[in-house]
Request: fold
Amino acid sequence: GQALCRSYNNWMAEVCGRRPDNFKWVAAVTLDDVHGAVVEAGRAKALGAVGLMVCGTYGERLLGSPEFLPFFAEAARLDLSIGVHVGWTCTAVNQLVTDLFNSTVTAFAFPVLASFVSLIGAGIFDRFPTLRIAFLETGCEWVPYLASRMNHFYDFAVEQRIHMDYFDRNHAFRTGSNRSKAYRTSAVRARNSDLETPSAFNS
Reply:
């Protein structure tokens, strides 16, 4: 839990602190304990952290859940970026798969994709307009598909804002994998054509 995160953060601060001009580090926190995560965020900032790492889901809760608002408020106040990482963190989805192929393709990435939609639909970026969140280790080929779906169903969102407003305000697509180059190009083209999703993503 949070104690393990504190131990990791202490180690990162010590190691990176030896060459602060060369290394920057991101603190780990767990939102299973929201108050503890808020406290650890402040402590990590004081130790030199430049960001915070969280999972995409916690139990059966997406990141847009109201109980996580104090954490996002503190991250915005401290000017700490947030990284949402992949992982087998959603028990309900994990129980649907029984082999490694389906587990790594679906269950492993699901929390990141689901919380991407959840955060936008819950209006988190309206509440905290300076908040910076990265969705990591999943490439970016899924962005045009989900963006198109959100644009179609935005009337159902808690926050009644067309999601494209967020992309217009601040967006970036990054991938370090050569195999994702074509998908990154598709993502940018889709964005520039008002999300006329490329055929690779059509149902």
Remarks:
- The longest strand covers residues 51-55.
- Residues 2-17 form the longest helix (16 residues).
- The beta strands are 26-28, 51-55, 57-58, 61-62, 81-85, 133-135.
- DSSP finds ten helices and six strands in the chain.
